[in-house]
Structure formats: structure tokens, C-alpha cells
Amino acid sequence: MKYLFFIGFLFCTTLIYSQDTYKRTYYIPQSKLKLLKTEKKVSFKELTPKQQDSIRDTFKGFKTIEYTVSKTINGKNVEVKKIDTINDSFFEKQKFLITVNPDRNEVIKAFVKFPDDKNKIIINPFISKRDTLNSTYFISLKNRHKEWLPFTEFTVSSVTIPLKYRFKDKSNDIGEEFTTAINLNFLLGFSYGNSSFMYRDKVGNKSNTWKLSGGVILGASTVELNNSNTSNAEIPIESGNTINQGLFSFGFGATYSFNKLNFGVFYGWDYSLGDASKKWNYNKQPWLGIGVGYSLFKI
Predict the structure, then answer these.
(1) Cα(274)–Cα(49) distance, integer angstroms
(2) Are 243 and 235 in contact (CB under 8 A)?
(3) Which pLDDT band, with edges at 50, 70 and 90, does 134 fall under?
(4) Which end of the chain is more exposed for a tag (fewer CB within 10 A), N or C?
């Protein structure tokens, strides 16, 4: 019977899980550097002959061009009409925005954004000697094309583990036990993961994320002491009587998340607090918690 209960524990333990993340850092590996593009303003002379011919063809058949510019006159902003003659001097005065490869050869740490209506992953690198505040790159995606980018981050997660398996202690004649209790724990740790970015033309982009997190657990809960779970004490609690004790939990945990689905394994110790703390059979004894769940909220 206890094995059936243990199997049910593995598959049915509820993990109430919410989290906040700090300093998520994406990495553009060397294998993807060739995909990076950036926009750069250049003069007409810096363009290739093919690009120059393309621009000239755009103005083919026009002798002049008329446009307006904003100017401040006597403290007021006004629109001023200008007329330029289309000739070599006109082209030489213009600046043109072109797409180029940034020619990077080392792994890039960056912030990343994936607008829902764009076919580009926007990449804003961390500032280094080779970057300025205006250095922004992007990776263009074809329809239904997907790219994965790895990341690391610090994670603070609130976790509730309603079922714990407490190990047998033969030396103290203590049997194994499953316990249920309301508890609140915080997992302070570090995460490694990957995010996928898929461009879907006219129907909205799609992004998925998986990550592994590991760290330290700190928590609090209560336990009801009775004659059964104080049987190993010098003076057990009398049958029919109960005492509520506070618990401080310390341990370690690891979680796997895919979007909002979570699976976690936790190992720790509960320390009873209060006058009757030494009576509890499982005071300072290890326990194992396993949970699966769905993250409904973020902190």
C-alpha cells in the first residue's frame, strides 16, 4: 500500500510556483554571429556601385524633388518647403540607412526582445569596448522559421510543497512517513535555459522557454505534534493531546520549467521551533519533496 501511495505522491504532488527573475542574460553563440545584422548610416560614396545605381534608378525621371523640413524661426517651429535639384551633388549630401553584418567574432551577452508584429529578434548587447549606447543588432526570421538563444538568470521562486516524504531512521527506531502541511518556501538560485523565437506572418509570433533552476530553499510551516509523531521522545505527548509547533525549513532544490509547466525536486530538513521541539521524531531529519504544477502568477 505504501508503494502505491509513493507513486501517487510522485505524480500528484502539487507545486504552487511563482517566480521573479533578475538579470536575464542572453548569449549569441559564435554559430549564430553570422546571422546578426545592424543598420548603419553611410554616405553615397560608401555604397557599392550596385547600391548607387539602385538609388539613382529610384529618382530616374525626376529633375527636382520637393520636401519640407522643420526649422525654428523666432522661437517657433515652422515647416519650411525646400526644392533640390537631382544631380551628383544631391546624392553626395545624403545619408543612407543600410543593413550590414557587425563583424563580431566573440560570444555576445545581450538583452533580447521579440516584438509580436516583427520578423526580427532585437538584440541589445551589453556595453563593451566594441559597443556604444546605440549599438543594436537583429536577427531576421523567415515565416515559420525558429531560432533558439540560450540565457542565464538569477531566480527567486516561491514554492509550496504540500507533501513531504520523511526517511526512516533505524538507529532511532523512527519509521518513514508522508506528511501534509501548509508551507511557504523560497528558492533562491540560478537558472540556465533556452528561448525559441518563431516568426508567424500575420498570425502573431510564438516564443517558448525552458530552463533548469537550482538553489537554496528557505521556508516556514507548522506541524501538529501528537502521541504518534513524538513516540521517540523521553516523554511523548499523551494520547488525545496535540501541540502546534512552528517549523523552519532549509534545503536545496532543482526545478525544470517549460513555459508555465513546472517540475521540482527538493531535499531538506525541518527544524522545530518552540518548547516541545525536541519531542518531534523528525526534528532536523531529512525529507524529500517532489512537485509538478502550473504557474498561474508571477510575483
Answers:
(1) 84
(2) no
(3) low
(4) N
Question: Angle 276-282-287 (CA atoms, 0-180°, nearest 5)?
Answer: 140
Alpha-carbon dihedral sign for residues 17, 23, 24, 29? negative
CB-based contact 207:234 (threshold 8 Å): no
> 288 and 267 in contact (C-beta within 8 Å)?
yes
Q: Is 70 exposed, middle or buried (0-12, 13-18, 19+ CB in 10 A)?
A: exposed
How far is Cα 97 from Cα 210, in angstroms, rounded to an integer? Answer: 37
Nearest to 256 by CA among 209, 206, 200: 209
* pTM exceeding 0.90: no
Q: Give residue 142's pLDDT.
A: 95
What pLDDT is attached to residue 133? 61
In angstroms, the Cα distances linking 24 to 27, 49, 109, 158, 216 are 10, 43, 10, 18, 19
Quote the CA–CA distance of 113 and 101 in Å, as a whole number.
19
Question: Mean pLDDT, the chain, as a whole number?
Answer: 86
Cell of 228: 504518534
